[in-house]
């Protein structure tokens, strides 16, 4: 009797985690939940949906991959949810620098170390925009004024203080010689960032490059600089100068990748690394990257883990300087 119960439990557990065959390979046995740690329409949501769509349409994965939005806490609500799915490879989530920044701020008890990094797929970059009629025409002009009186210039972003839009700005400003402890940053998470910029409530908009394109096309704003290593490709995007070409030797990469719960089986990790590699090499994914202005930044395994460790150390140092470290 006891043996029967034990066998039943083992079978149930094995079924929930997927199928590991005799040769040690793993494959999913049910739909794979793709979690976007924010509402619909943002970068996490778009990335999760485009990846799931490509996996399904290119028949790289033969199971459904429904995208589930779990907004809240700058990502913390979703991370708490995934943390409870320990070892279950049927739950993945997309993330980016907030996975490092939010825990370092003390706003999440889950850190990147609580999850299994599978693959980084793209890189996006920050852009710093001002009204079309603003007096500054480049980053150096802006930063010269900020060196004289940092608090006289207000920077706005969607993310909370100490998270991405704030940190990408201060990282570049610091390299330009600005006292970043005096930078005045305002968080607007209800969608009013551009309105505030255009009505003169704030001076500088720190955002992702894609968020600025339509307003630049409309002639309402101008981009003083972006955080990429070199100019991006694409209509409008190729006109945006980098901070580096303006003599400011610093970059900020908004990496975006996928993670699973902690303690995933090695065979399941190997399965996803292989599938993400095939996704990265597909023509369909290349088209999606071009459509959204995303750059390729593909990493798996130890390379990805080392990258995350280095990024975490850099973010921690910046937050400590700002007095925002945990």
TrEMBL record:
It comes from the Bacteria. SUPFAM superfamilies: Periplasmic binding protein-like II. Pfam families: TctC. InterPro entries: BUG, Bug_dom1. Belongs to the UPF0065 (bug) family. This is Tricarboxylic transport TctC. It comes from Sutcliffiella horikoshii.
């Amino acid at each position: 009797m006891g043996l029967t119960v034990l066998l039943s439990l083992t079978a149930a557990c094995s079924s929930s985690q997927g199928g590991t065959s005799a040769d040690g390979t793993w494959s999913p046995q049910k739909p794979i939940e793709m979690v976007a740690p924010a509402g619909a329409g943002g970068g996490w949501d778009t990335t999760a949906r485009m990846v799931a769509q490509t996996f399904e349409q290119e028949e790289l994965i033969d199971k459904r991959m429904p995208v589930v939005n779990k907004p809240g806490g700058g990502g913390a609500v979703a991370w708490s949810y995934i943390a409870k799915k320990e070892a279950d490879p049927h739950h993945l989530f997309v993330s980016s620098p907030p996975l490092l920044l939010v825990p370092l701020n003390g706003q999440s008890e889950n850190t990147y170390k609580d999850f299994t990094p599978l693959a980084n797929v793209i890189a996006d970059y920050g852009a710093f925009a001002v009204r079309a009629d603003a007096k500054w025409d480049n980053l150096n002009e802006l930063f010269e004024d900020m060196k004289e009186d940092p608090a006289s210039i207000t920077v706005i972003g969607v993310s909370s203080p100490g998270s991405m839009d704030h940190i990408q700005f201060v990282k570049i400003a610091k390299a330009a010689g600005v006292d970043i402890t005096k930078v005045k940053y305002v968080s607007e998470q209800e969608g009013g960032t551009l309105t505030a910029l255009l009505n003169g409530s704030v001076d500088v908009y720190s955002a992702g490059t894609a968020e600025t394109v339509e307003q630049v096309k409309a002639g309402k704003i101008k981009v003083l600089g972006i955080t990429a290593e070199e100019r991006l490709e694409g209509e409008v995007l190729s006109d945006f100068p980098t901070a580096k070409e303006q003599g400011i030797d610093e970059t900020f990469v908004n990496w975006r990748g996928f993670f699973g719960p902690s303690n995933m089986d090695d065979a399941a990790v190997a399965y996803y690394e292989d599938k993400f590699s095939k996704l990265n090499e597909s023509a369909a994914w290349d088209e999606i990257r071009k459509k959204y202005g995303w750059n390729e930044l593909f990493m798996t395994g130890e390379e990805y883990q080392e990258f995350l460790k280095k990024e975490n150390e850099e973010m921690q140092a910046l937050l400590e300087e700002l007095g925002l470290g945990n």
